[in-house]
Amino acid sequence: MTEKTVSIYRSMKDLPSTHLLGTGTPMCAGCGGLEALNQLYDIIGDKSVFVNAAGCMTLLSVYPFTPFRGSWLYTSMASAPAGAQGVRDALDILMQKQRMNAAEDMQVVVLTGDGSAYGMGLSATSGAIERDLDFLYICYDNEGYGNTGQQFSAATPHGAKTSTSTGPRGYPGFKKDLFAIWAAHKPAYVATVVGAEPVDLARKIEKAMSLKGPRMLIALSPCPTGWEYDPRETVSIGKLAVKTGIWPLKEYIDGQVVHTKVPRERKPVEDYLMLQGRYRHLFEPQRNDELIADIQARVDRYWNKLDQ
Amino acid sequence: MTRKLLTGNGAAALGARLAATDYIPAFPITPQTEIIETLSGWIDRGEMDARMVTMESEHSMVTAAAAAAASGIRVFSATSSQGLLYGMEMLYTVSGWRAPFVLVNVSRGLASPITLEPDHNDIMSARDSGFLQLHCATCQEVLDSTLMAFRLAEDERIRLPVIVNMDGFYLSFTREPVEVPDLETAQMFVGEYDCENIRFRASAPVSQAVAVLGGAPYSYFRYETHLAAQNGLAVYEQLSVEFAAQFGREYPAIEAYQCDDADIVFVMLGSFATKAQAAVDQLRKAGNKVGLLRPRLFRPFPAELFRRLLAGKAGVAVIDQNISMGMGGVLHSELAAALYGHPQAPPQLLSFIGGLGGRDISLEEFFEIAEVTRNAVAQKQTPPPRLLYTEQELREMRKLQAVARVERDELNNSGAVKND
Asked: Which pLDDT score is estimated for A3?
């Protein structure tokens, strides 16, 4: 399907006006991950089993409460996709042996943070894609081990201060390209989303729900506590991540990568960086022009390559 | 009922098939691999109505097994040694899901040094995981225990995963005549799995394995799991009576051999206990009143039954095929905990370590163990734990070391390796 002809989500007006996910969770105020999950869950619906890996969102379901209207299974940090395999296979076996009515079937959804998705859980994810498991995978990517106080992870961007990269140049490594790693497995669908772009997000989860096989979403999740900004800035930081070109919104389907929202005139990356405490060392006490230019150059290189 | 020559691995696979297993998450590891190869062959030829999925690790394998069990189907899996340890985080995790399934462990010594041959350090590491444990000494027992394990795991008073343990090579690859029950009788015994509320269904959403805040709810759920495991003692008793009535084979929680009039008793787990059994016969011929206890049920630990069977004995020699570094044999400590302070407890409880990495325990050594135990009884003094090793073995070891030295010196002298 192509989104232009079939998607029911053309503008904000088309999005659900009430949320399915319950309120009062222990997520931080302004959590960009929860912002994305709220929107995703509205479209996934309650006929779902969320298979969770250790991370911030493990605390969504604390006995005896859960914000989910559907089901939930907590597994471990490394093996949520394997948990999804067990649930999916069991439901298929039950239907095949006519021990369960098809009306009782559910979407199986893996929910992990970037710590699991980019690192410890990557082997289990690779295995699940390779087995062509019919599941949704949602990674809320707050670019660090957020639940333990924002130590750097394989998703941390170059130069960011984390609680384990506190030096004047921040994190020396580079954010791993998980989109490309996932796409290299040739799953049914891979997309990047951000809660601050709800229509783009809605179209992508709508598309993912219409497909079978491994369907993977990475949601950039601005994190007030880890990225050090006021919680009310979550939406504007998410929008700036897209407008500066730092977080390309794209999807992989049928072997093609398509950018779904191309910023024609990209804002300078420092508009995005300067709002966040994790980049304050780039501006104070002295401005680090070299590192800012380096970050800008990497973003420019990404988009220039696409134009060719 | 037919009689067949089966390896322990073949017997385990057949147990899973006769129990009408729905689902088998798998991962190959020596010496277990034959189990999953056998099951895979049956499934591929349409002889078994089950689904197998090869996972990318044992950690994922245990997760998938438990997640499927938590969705309400009958699940079987198998592993060994390093694989069991690789999955260990999930062993501890999934027992708390209270989703029953059966895992066969083919015991193999742990690295380092790496080896393929058997001992029990792998299975002992799962001791506190919440999985119940059945230990086998024959291929017949492997088949029968696999059937019993499903009943035990799925019993509504328990609802815990169960490990069936057998020794690598000695059982896994050894062919023995095995009485194979017909499918109908086996399925009548195992019954259909009624998952009740342990399942995921669209019309009845549940949250499983959620977090808790604070020690009180945490303790509550942990105690519940412990008490469920303890229920295993009574359930096992009933089950073994039922099994004997159905199949004519008796499997008490602790198998006692020549114990009634014995003053010295050996205690051992697994297939190496058959060596002890042969030694008991020889010792008795030589006029020694020696007996043998072999616990089949290790978790829950049949402490009360041990106390009863050992009441009034003069001395007990626990021969552990495992070693807890800095402490000694695990079964020895368990037995000490069960016996301590009980008025009828044997005054002498000795510890011997043997059979590590498949090392043989000879008849002479069993005679020596009996002798050392008898001396301890006479002198009323318990010797320190004894690590079984013969002069002959030490001499062979010295030869290997000599070869290693010669080769190293050769390399050093030729200048290939820097000598520092």
From this structure: 47
